Amino acid sequence: MSIEQEYFSVKDILGDLIGFQTTSNRSNLELIAYAENLLRHPNITTWRSAYPDDAETHCNLLVRIGPKGPGGLLISGHVDTVPALDQAGWITDPYVLTPSEDGEKLYGRGAADMLGAVACMLSKGKTWADMALAEPLYLLLSYNEEVGCTGIGSAIETFGELGIQPRLNLIPEPSGLELVFAHKSCTTVKFTVTTGHGHASEGNSPPVTNAVQLTSKLIDRISEDGELRKKLGHPLLGPASTEFTRFLQLSGGANVIPGDVEASMDLRATEGITQDGLGNAFGPVRASVLAEYRRRKIGPADIAVDYTIRGPGFICDDPRTIELAKLLAHRNDAIVVAYGTEAPRFKAGGHPEVLILGPGGIKEAHIANEFVARRQLIEFLGILDNFADFCVRPAKYLCDPRLG
Ligand SMILES: [Zn+2]
Predict the structure, then answer these.
(1) What is the whole-number distance in angstroms between the Cα of residue 371 and the centre of ligand 1?
(2) pLDDT (tens digit, 9 = 90+) per residue, 173-211?
(3) pTM of the model
(4) Cα-to-centroid distance, 150 and ligand 1 (Å)
(5) How much distance in Å is there from the Cα of 225 to the middle of ligand 1?
(6) What's the mean pLDDT when you consider all of the chain?
(7) 78 C-alpha to center of ligand 1: Å?
(8) Residue 88 CB coordination number (10 Å)
Protein backbone atom coordinates (compact mmCIF):
# COMPACT_ATOMS: atom_id res chain seq x y z
CA MET A 1 0.00 0.00 0.00
CA SER A 2 1.37 3.44 -0.90
CA ILE A 3 1.58 6.03 1.85
CA GLU A 4 -1.29 7.94 0.22
CA GLN A 5 -3.49 4.82 0.19
CA GLU A 6 -2.58 4.18 3.80
CA TYR A 7 -3.50 7.75 4.70
CA PHE A 8 -6.91 7.37 3.03
CA SER A 9 -7.54 4.21 5.06
CA VAL A 10 -6.65 6.11 8.27
CA LYS A 11 -8.91 8.96 7.26
CA ASP A 12 -11.85 6.61 6.65
CA ILE A 13 -11.35 4.90 10.00
CA LEU A 14 -10.96 8.24 11.79
CA GLY A 15 -14.25 9.42 10.27
CA ASP A 16 -15.98 6.31 11.62
CA LEU A 17 -14.39 6.66 15.08
CA ILE A 18 -15.45 10.30 15.40
CA GLY A 19 -18.97 9.36 14.28
CA PHE A 20 -19.39 7.04 17.29
CA GLN A 21 -19.50 10.13 19.56
CA THR A 22 -17.62 8.47 22.40
CA THR A 23 -17.88 11.26 24.95
CA SER A 24 -16.74 9.64 28.22
CA ASN A 25 -20.27 9.43 29.64
CA ARG A 26 -21.58 7.63 26.53
CA SER A 27 -21.11 3.96 25.71
CA ASN A 28 -18.02 3.00 23.70
CA LEU A 29 -19.18 -0.55 22.93
CA GLU A 30 -20.11 0.26 19.34
CA LEU A 31 -16.62 1.63 18.69
CA ILE A 32 -15.02 -1.40 20.36
CA ALA A 33 -17.07 -3.83 18.24
CA TYR A 34 -16.01 -1.86 15.15
CA ALA A 35 -12.34 -2.17 16.18
CA GLU A 36 -12.70 -5.92 16.80
CA ASN A 37 -14.17 -6.27 13.37
CA LEU A 38 -11.27 -4.40 11.72
CA LEU A 39 -8.81 -6.64 13.54
CA ARG A 40 -10.36 -10.00 12.69
CA HIS A 41 -7.34 -12.10 11.62
CA PRO A 42 -5.93 -15.53 12.57
CA ASN A 43 -2.81 -13.92 14.08
CA ILE A 44 -4.74 -11.44 16.23
CA THR A 45 -6.27 -12.15 19.65
CA THR A 46 -8.46 -9.65 21.51
CA TRP A 47 -9.73 -9.36 25.08
CA ARG A 48 -12.35 -7.00 26.49
CA SER A 49 -12.09 -5.77 30.07
CA ALA A 50 -14.06 -3.39 32.27
CA TYR A 51 -14.86 -2.74 35.90
CA PRO A 52 -18.18 -4.33 36.95
CA ASP A 53 -19.95 -0.97 37.25
CA ASP A 54 -18.94 0.00 33.69
CA ALA A 55 -19.35 -3.36 31.96
CA GLU A 56 -22.77 -2.69 30.42
CA THR A 57 -21.65 0.50 28.72
CA HIS A 58 -17.85 0.71 28.46
CA CYS A 59 -14.84 -1.53 27.99
CA ASN A 60 -11.15 -1.59 27.14
CA LEU A 61 -9.91 -3.66 24.23
CA LEU A 62 -6.55 -5.39 24.51
CA VAL A 63 -5.14 -6.77 21.27
CA ARG A 64 -2.20 -9.08 20.71
CA ILE A 65 -0.78 -9.20 17.21
CA GLY A 66 1.70 -12.00 16.49
CA PRO A 67 3.02 -14.67 18.82
CA LYS A 68 2.28 -15.27 22.46
CA GLY A 69 5.50 -14.78 24.38
CA PRO A 70 7.54 -12.50 26.58
CA GLY A 71 8.56 -8.94 25.75
CA GLY A 72 6.99 -7.12 22.86
CA LEU A 73 5.75 -3.56 22.59
CA LEU A 74 2.41 -1.98 23.45
CA ILE A 75 0.66 1.07 22.00
CA SER A 76 -2.22 2.40 24.08
CA GLY A 77 -4.82 5.03 23.18
CA HIS A 78 -7.99 6.14 24.93
CA VAL A 79 -11.12 6.22 22.79
CA ASP A 80 -13.23 8.55 24.93
CA THR A 81 -13.38 12.26 24.19
CA VAL A 82 -14.44 15.43 25.96
CA PRO A 83 -17.92 16.74 25.01
CA ALA A 84 -18.45 18.99 21.98
CA LEU A 85 -22.17 19.66 21.69
CA ASP A 86 -22.25 22.34 24.39
CA GLN A 87 -19.00 23.92 23.16
CA ALA A 88 -19.37 27.21 21.30
CA GLY A 89 -17.28 28.05 18.25
CA TRP A 90 -17.42 24.89 16.14
CA ILE A 91 -17.60 25.83 12.47
CA THR A 92 -18.11 22.22 11.35
CA ASP A 93 -20.16 19.38 12.83
CA PRO A 94 -17.81 18.06 15.55
CA TYR A 95 -18.94 14.48 14.87
CA VAL A 96 -18.41 14.55 11.12
CA LEU A 97 -14.75 14.39 10.09
CA THR A 98 -14.24 17.42 7.86
CA PRO A 99 -11.03 18.13 5.92
CA SER A 100 -9.83 21.70 5.40
CA GLU A 101 -9.99 23.02 1.84
CA ASP A 102 -6.35 22.16 1.14
CA GLY A 103 -6.78 18.75 2.80
CA GLU A 104 -3.98 19.45 5.28
CA LYS A 105 -6.16 19.41 8.40
CA LEU A 106 -8.87 17.03 9.56
CA TYR A 107 -11.43 18.57 11.92
CA GLY A 108 -13.59 16.71 14.44
CA ARG A 109 -13.96 15.98 18.15
CA GLY A 110 -11.14 13.66 19.11
CA ALA A 111 -9.16 14.12 15.86
CA ALA A 112 -6.11 15.14 17.91
CA ASP A 113 -7.01 13.69 21.32
CA MET A 114 -6.62 10.89 20.37
CA LEU A 115 -8.72 9.15 17.78
CA GLY A 116 -6.27 10.12 15.00
CA ALA A 117 -3.60 7.96 16.64
CA VAL A 118 -6.11 5.16 17.28
CA ALA A 119 -7.15 5.24 13.60
CA CYS A 120 -3.48 4.77 12.61
CA MET A 121 -3.15 1.82 15.01
CA LEU A 122 -6.29 0.14 13.71
CA SER A 123 -5.38 0.75 10.09
CA LYS A 124 -2.01 -0.99 10.62
CA GLY A 125 -3.36 -4.00 12.57
CA LYS A 126 -3.83 -6.53 9.80
CA THR A 127 -0.65 -5.51 7.95
CA TRP A 128 1.31 -6.26 11.12
CA ALA A 129 -0.56 -9.54 11.59
CA ASP A 130 0.68 -10.67 8.16
CA MET A 131 4.31 -10.05 9.17
CA ALA A 132 6.54 -12.63 10.83
CA LEU A 133 6.71 -11.05 14.28
CA ALA A 134 9.22 -12.56 16.70
CA GLU A 135 7.70 -10.71 19.67
CA PRO A 136 4.09 -9.65 20.27
CA LEU A 137 2.83 -6.22 19.32
CA TYR A 138 -0.02 -5.18 21.61
CA LEU A 139 -2.64 -2.51 21.08
CA LEU A 140 -4.83 -1.22 23.85
CA LEU A 141 -7.94 0.94 23.51
CA SER A 142 -9.02 2.33 26.86
CA TYR A 143 -12.07 4.12 28.22
CA ASN A 144 -12.72 7.04 30.59
CA GLU A 145 -9.30 8.68 30.30
CA GLU A 146 -10.88 12.12 30.14
CA VAL A 147 -12.69 11.69 33.43
CA GLY A 148 -9.72 10.77 35.62
CA CYS A 149 -8.20 7.74 33.83
CA THR A 150 -10.65 5.46 35.64
CA GLY A 151 -11.06 2.80 32.93
CA ILE A 152 -7.59 1.58 32.04
CA GLY A 153 -6.87 -0.05 35.40
CA SER A 154 -8.97 -3.08 34.52
CA ALA A 155 -6.91 -3.62 31.35
CA ILE A 156 -3.66 -3.40 33.31
CA GLU A 157 -5.06 -6.07 35.66
CA THR A 158 -5.49 -8.24 32.56
CA PHE A 159 -1.77 -7.81 31.81
CA GLY A 160 -1.09 -9.57 35.12
CA GLU A 161 -3.49 -12.44 34.36
CA LEU A 162 -1.98 -12.99 30.90
CA GLY A 163 1.65 -12.41 31.94
CA ILE A 164 2.05 -9.40 29.65
CA GLN A 165 5.13 -7.27 30.38
CA PRO A 166 5.98 -5.21 27.29
CA ARG A 167 9.46 -3.79 26.94
CA LEU A 168 7.97 -0.41 26.07
CA ASN A 169 4.46 1.06 26.29
CA LEU A 170 3.77 3.98 23.98
CA ILE A 171 0.88 6.33 24.67
CA PRO A 172 0.21 8.36 21.52
CA GLU A 173 -1.44 11.34 23.25
CA PRO A 174 -1.17 14.48 21.09
CA SER A 175 2.41 15.63 21.63
CA GLY A 176 3.01 17.11 18.18
CA LEU A 177 5.14 13.96 17.67
CA GLU A 178 7.58 15.05 20.36
CA LEU A 179 8.81 12.24 22.57
CA VAL A 180 7.70 12.81 26.16
CA PHE A 181 9.31 11.02 29.13
CA ALA A 182 7.66 12.91 32.00
CA HIS A 183 4.68 15.02 32.87
CA LYS A 184 3.63 17.06 35.83
CA SER A 185 0.85 16.19 38.24
CA CYS A 186 -2.39 18.11 38.00
CA THR A 187 -3.99 19.34 41.22
CA THR A 188 -6.80 21.70 42.14
CA VAL A 189 -5.85 23.85 45.11
CA LYS A 190 -8.79 25.55 46.76
CA PHE A 191 -8.37 28.70 48.87
CA THR A 192 -11.34 29.54 51.07
CA VAL A 193 -11.11 33.09 52.34
CA THR A 194 -13.44 34.04 55.19
CA THR A 195 -13.91 37.41 56.86
CA GLY A 196 -16.87 38.95 58.63
CA HIS A 197 -19.72 40.31 56.51
CA GLY A 198 -20.50 44.03 56.81
CA HIS A 199 -22.90 46.71 55.59
CA ALA A 200 -21.67 48.05 52.27
CA SER A 201 -21.96 51.62 53.54
CA GLU A 202 -19.02 50.82 55.83
CA GLY A 203 -16.96 50.01 52.75
CA ASN A 204 -14.05 52.39 52.52
CA SER A 205 -13.69 53.14 56.20
CA PRO A 206 -11.49 50.47 57.67
CA PRO A 207 -13.09 48.12 60.11
CA VAL A 208 -14.53 45.46 57.82
CA THR A 209 -12.34 43.20 55.71
CA ASN A 210 -13.71 42.56 52.26
CA ALA A 211 -13.19 38.88 51.35
CA VAL A 212 -13.15 39.68 47.61
CA GLN A 213 -10.31 42.17 48.07
CA LEU A 214 -8.41 39.85 50.36
CA THR A 215 -8.73 37.02 47.83
CA SER A 216 -7.58 39.16 44.91
CA LYS A 217 -4.54 40.21 46.94
CA LEU A 218 -3.79 36.54 47.59
CA ILE A 219 -4.21 35.70 43.89
CA ASP A 220 -1.87 38.52 42.82
CA ARG A 221 0.74 37.48 45.35
CA ILE A 222 0.70 33.81 44.32
CA SER A 223 0.63 34.59 40.61
CA GLU A 224 3.71 36.82 40.90
CA ASP A 225 5.70 34.46 43.12
CA GLY A 226 8.41 32.80 41.02
CA GLU A 227 10.11 31.39 44.11
CA LEU A 228 6.90 29.59 45.08
CA ARG A 229 6.74 27.95 41.67
CA LYS A 230 10.35 26.81 42.06
CA LYS A 231 9.60 25.45 45.54
CA LEU A 232 6.72 23.39 44.14
CA GLY A 233 8.82 22.26 41.20
CA HIS A 234 11.03 19.27 40.56
CA PRO A 235 14.66 18.98 39.33
CA LEU A 236 13.58 17.08 36.19
CA LEU A 237 10.17 18.65 35.64
CA GLY A 238 11.13 22.27 36.24
CA PRO A 239 9.13 24.88 38.16
CA ALA A 240 5.43 24.36 38.84
CA SER A 241 2.74 26.38 37.09
CA THR A 242 -0.07 28.07 39.01
CA GLU A 243 -3.16 29.32 37.21
CA PHE A 244 -6.31 30.57 38.96
CA THR A 245 -9.33 29.05 37.24
CA ARG A 246 -12.38 29.88 39.36
CA PHE A 247 -13.46 32.62 41.73
CA LEU A 248 -16.68 32.17 43.64
CA GLN A 249 -18.33 34.50 46.10
CA LEU A 250 -20.12 32.18 48.49
CA SER A 251 -22.63 34.59 50.01
CA GLY A 252 -23.61 38.26 50.06
CA GLY A 253 -25.09 40.61 47.47
CA ALA A 254 -25.98 44.28 47.09
CA ASN A 255 -25.50 46.23 50.32
CA VAL A 256 -23.31 43.51 51.85
CA ILE A 257 -19.54 43.52 52.09
CA PRO A 258 -18.66 39.97 51.05
CA GLY A 259 -17.42 37.71 53.82
CA ASP A 260 -16.51 34.46 52.10
CA VAL A 261 -14.92 33.59 48.78
CA GLU A 262 -13.53 30.47 47.22
CA ALA A 263 -10.75 30.64 44.63
CA SER A 264 -9.56 27.54 42.79
CA MET A 265 -6.13 27.22 41.28
CA ASP A 266 -4.82 24.71 38.77
CA LEU A 267 -1.39 23.54 39.93
CA ARG A 268 0.91 21.61 37.60
CA ALA A 269 3.78 20.41 39.71
CA THR A 270 5.94 17.41 40.60
CA GLU A 271 5.05 13.72 40.44
CA GLY A 272 2.93 13.96 43.59
CA ILE A 273 1.60 16.64 45.95
CA THR A 274 1.31 16.28 49.73
CA GLN A 275 -0.45 18.37 52.38
CA ASP A 276 2.92 19.12 53.99
CA GLY A 277 4.43 20.19 50.70
CA LEU A 278 1.53 22.53 50.00
CA GLY A 279 1.55 23.88 53.55
CA ASN A 280 5.27 24.67 53.30
CA ALA A 281 4.87 26.33 49.94
CA PHE A 282 1.76 28.44 50.57
CA GLY A 283 2.29 29.08 54.30
CA PRO A 284 4.50 32.18 53.98
CA VAL A 285 2.37 33.97 51.35
CA ARG A 286 -0.82 33.16 53.29
CA ALA A 287 0.70 34.51 56.49
CA SER A 288 1.99 37.69 54.87
CA VAL A 289 -1.32 38.52 53.14
CA LEU A 290 -3.24 37.98 56.39
CA ALA A 291 -0.74 40.01 58.44
CA GLU A 292 -0.92 42.93 56.03
CA TYR A 293 -4.74 42.98 56.19
CA ARG A 294 -4.78 42.70 59.95
CA ARG A 295 -2.59 45.78 60.18
CA ARG A 296 -5.24 47.78 58.32
CA LYS A 297 -8.52 46.09 59.20
CA ILE A 298 -10.29 44.83 62.27
CA GLY A 299 -12.18 41.59 62.56
CA PRO A 300 -11.74 37.98 61.59
CA ALA A 301 -9.93 36.87 58.47
CA ASP A 302 -8.70 33.45 57.53
CA ILE A 303 -7.47 31.55 54.49
CA ALA A 304 -7.89 27.78 54.35
CA VAL A 305 -5.90 25.77 51.77
CA ASP A 306 -7.28 22.50 50.47
CA TYR A 307 -6.40 20.34 47.48
CA THR A 308 -7.58 17.51 45.21
CA ILE A 309 -5.19 15.65 42.93
CA ARG A 310 -6.90 15.35 39.55
CA GLY A 311 -4.05 13.45 37.92
CA PRO A 312 -0.75 12.15 39.26
CA GLY A 313 2.51 13.09 37.56
CA PHE A 314 4.81 10.72 35.75
CA ILE A 315 8.51 10.21 35.13
CA CYS A 316 9.96 7.37 33.10
CA ASP A 317 13.17 6.82 35.03
CA ASP A 318 14.63 3.95 33.04
CA PRO A 319 17.26 5.37 30.64
CA ARG A 320 17.27 2.17 28.54
CA THR A 321 13.56 2.47 27.83
CA ILE A 322 13.97 6.13 26.91
CA GLU A 323 16.81 5.25 24.53
CA LEU A 324 14.74 2.47 22.93
CA ALA A 325 11.86 4.91 22.36
CA LYS A 326 14.25 7.47 20.84
CA LEU A 327 15.61 4.82 18.53
CA LEU A 328 12.17 3.69 17.36
CA ALA A 329 10.78 7.21 17.02
CA HIS A 330 13.96 8.63 15.43
CA ARG A 331 14.17 11.33 18.10
CA ASN A 332 17.29 12.81 19.69
CA ASP A 333 15.55 14.20 22.75
CA ALA A 334 12.73 13.49 25.14
CA ILE A 335 10.83 16.34 26.78
CA VAL A 336 8.59 17.14 29.77
CA VAL A 337 4.98 18.32 29.39
CA ALA A 338 2.37 19.74 31.76
CA TYR A 339 -0.69 17.71 30.75
CA GLY A 340 -1.72 14.40 32.26
CA THR A 341 -1.92 10.94 30.65
CA GLU A 342 -2.53 7.31 31.62
CA ALA A 343 1.22 6.78 32.11
CA PRO A 344 1.05 6.92 35.96
CA ARG A 345 -1.55 4.11 35.87
CA PHE A 346 0.89 1.93 33.95
CA LYS A 347 3.67 2.73 36.41
CA ALA A 348 1.47 2.06 39.44
CA GLY A 349 0.44 -1.27 37.86
CA GLY A 350 4.06 -2.42 37.57
CA HIS A 351 4.76 -1.15 34.04
CA PRO A 352 7.06 1.86 34.35
CA GLU A 353 8.39 1.52 30.79
CA VAL A 354 6.13 4.20 29.31
CA LEU A 355 6.69 7.09 26.90
CA ILE A 356 4.32 9.41 25.14
CA LEU A 357 4.38 10.45 21.48
CA GLY A 358 1.45 11.04 19.21
CA PRO A 359 0.08 13.09 16.31
CA GLY A 360 -1.82 16.34 16.89
CA GLY A 361 -1.10 19.16 19.29
CA ILE A 362 -2.34 19.44 22.86
CA LYS A 363 -3.17 23.09 21.97
CA GLU A 364 -5.85 21.77 19.61
CA ALA A 365 -7.27 19.24 22.07
CA HIS A 366 -10.47 19.85 24.05
CA ILE A 367 -11.36 23.06 22.18
CA ALA A 368 -13.71 23.91 19.32
CA ASN A 369 -12.42 23.07 15.83
CA GLU A 370 -10.05 20.39 17.09
CA PHE A 371 -7.96 19.03 14.23
CA VAL A 372 -5.09 16.77 13.38
CA ALA A 373 -2.70 17.54 10.53
CA ARG A 374 -2.39 15.13 7.62
CA ARG A 375 1.41 15.34 7.75
CA GLN A 376 1.49 14.33 11.40
CA LEU A 377 -0.66 11.26 10.76
CA ILE A 378 1.62 10.22 7.90
CA GLU A 379 4.74 10.69 10.01
CA PHE A 380 3.14 8.74 12.86
CA LEU A 381 2.41 5.82 10.50
CA GLY A 382 6.15 5.69 9.78
CA ILE A 383 6.94 5.60 13.51
CA LEU A 384 4.45 2.76 13.98
CA ASP A 385 6.25 0.84 11.23
CA ASN A 386 9.43 1.11 13.27
CA PHE A 387 7.56 -0.45 16.22
CA ALA A 388 6.53 -3.36 13.99
CA ASP A 389 10.12 -3.67 12.76
CA PHE A 390 11.26 -3.99 16.37
CA CYS A 391 8.87 -6.91 16.84
CA VAL A 392 10.22 -8.58 13.68
CA ARG A 393 13.90 -8.24 14.68
CA PRO A 394 14.14 -7.22 18.34
CA ALA A 395 17.81 -8.21 18.65
CA LYS A 396 18.83 -5.56 16.11
CA TYR A 397 17.46 -2.85 18.40
CA LEU A 398 18.27 -4.38 21.77
CA CYS A 399 21.95 -4.72 20.79
CA ASP A 400 22.20 -1.12 19.65
CA PRO A 401 25.09 0.54 21.49
CA ARG A 402 22.85 3.51 22.41
CA LEU A 403 20.87 1.23 24.72
CA GLY A 404 24.07 0.70 26.77
ZN1 LIG B 1 -6.03 12.37 25.58
Answers:
(1) 13
(2) 999 999 999 998 889 999 999 987 777 776 666 566 789
(3) 0.85
(4) 13
(5) 31
(6) 93
(7) 7
(8) 5
